[in-house]
Write a structure and sequence with these properties.
By secondary structure, the protein is α/β, with parallel strands linked by helices. It has helices at about 15-25, 45-50, 70-85, 100-105, 110, 120-130, 135-145, 160-170, 190-195, 215-220, 240-255, 265-275, 290-295, 310-315, 325-330, 330-340, 345-355, 355-369, and strands spanning about 1-5, 35-40, 60-65, 90-95, 115, 150-155, 175, 200-205, 225-235, 255-260, 280, 300-305, 320-325.
């Protein structure tokens, strides 16, 4: 039996979707692989698992918890706890490399069986942080020291793996995986449907993270009279920045601007995105993949910066996306040109790649590697 320890991140969405996916696809009832999830007690993930545990989860599943200590002591106690647990496992899968997990890689026993699941914020965080403190520099030093020790690096975008290798000297093996997320059960809009509409609904960004660079896009949209509605998701991220963007949006666009400041159920959010015509992302690094995919599946046109790794990946799977750089230089003509492209081929390519069957196979390959 292969025993796997998952070191989880405190995020209200993706770890929960990941757990639900494994549960629904029978991973916790397999004889060949056993999964243990290490998480913060009473956090988002723990609360969700406890609700699910009212039903029998399966004999190949158990929970472990990080020691409850003050912040600095907690980092060292988490590292020690992971190091002790790792002796009993064949693989340790880090779903985020915070300071405690990073320190645990000091132990060769942990490092030689460790796999890092790449998140955009995890990989790019230090380079995009405009207010770095002493702790940020210390954490980056730990990364430089310990990431080269990893056995494997995993994620959706090979371009991110190449950056991890370049920035940190990683010599790990590459495994493609992606987190499951709710696939919208809506038919993609076709070109003719779009042409009949005189006014557009535009989504700007995916969160209240400074990396979205919202203001530049909002200023440009405010000058386009056929943009009727601008939706701006701000429920996730920095509350102060969310307030700044909401105020700027109202000032620039008036009643055309709609800030989403509270979490929505997945089905409700998907239904909202189905009313969008165009989504514009202005990140200068990979971010918001889930939002991008749902928009493409709904038949919406998506603008991304050509420099981000997501742009190349989507082109590689035959999905058509458009350049944010062109939108900023030629706003009206770039939007009108995008609307002339049929969405159905792109929606089909994305649907095929992000199928449950493919997701399941990729995780099975990693677990059995």
């Amino acid at each position: 039996m292969i025993k796997i320890l998952h070191v989880m991140v405190e995020d209200p969405k993706f770890p929960i979707w990941f757990f639900d996916f494994l549960y629904k696809n029978g991973f916790f009832r397999e004889e060949a692989v056993h999964h243990t999830f290490l998480c913060k007690a009473n956090g988002f993930f723990d609360a969700h698992v406890k609700k699910t545990a009212a039903i029998e989860i399966g004999h190949s599943f158990r929970m472990e918890y990080f020691p409850a200590h003050p912040r600095l002591l907690g980092i060292f106690s988490s590292a020690l706890h992971i190091s002790r647990l790792a002796d009993s496992y064949d693989k340790v899968v880090f779903h985020w490399l915070s300071d405690g997990p990073l320190l645990s890689l000091l132990s060769p026993r942990v490092a030689k069986r460790s796999f890092w699941i790449l998140w955009g914020g995890d990989l790019y965080g230090f380079r995009t942080n405009r207010s770095r403190g002493a702790r940020d520099y210390l954490s980056e030093c730990l990364r430089i020291c310990f990431i080269p020790r990893l056995k494997g690096i995993c994620g959706l975008l090979h371009g991110d793996f190449e950056l991890a290798s370049k920035w940190y000297g990683a010599k790990a093996e590459w495994h493609q995986v992606f987190y499951p997320f709710p696939i919208p059960s809506i038919a993609p809009k076709n070109k003719k449907t779009k042409e009949k509409r005189q006014k557009l609904t535009v989504q700007v960004g995916n969160s209240a993270d400074l990396a979205n660079n919202h203001i530049e896009i909002l200023e440009t949209l405010s000058k386009i009279d056929f943009v009727e509605k601008v939706i701006c998701p701000l429920s996730y991220g920095d509350a102060d920045y969310a307030e700044q963007v909401a105020k700027a949006g109202k000032l620039l666009l008036g009643d055309r601007f709609h800030a989403l400041t509270t979490f929505m159920a997945a089905d409700d959010y998907t239904a909202l995105l189905s009313t969008v015509d165009i989504a514009i992302m202005n990140h200068k690094r990979q971010q918001g993949v889930g939002n991008i995919i749902i928009n493409l599946l709904a038949g919406n046109k998506v603008f991304l910066r050509e420099s981000v790794t997501t742009f190349g990946f989507l082109n590689d799977i035959a999905a058509t996306v458009f350049a944010t750089e062109r939108f900023l230089s030629e706003p009206e003509s770039s939007l009108k040109a995008a609307l002339q492209v049929d969405s159905q081929k792109t929606a089909g390519a994305v649907q095929s790649f992000f199928s449950d069957e493919k997701c399941k196979k990729l995780w099975q390959d990693l677990f059995s590697a």
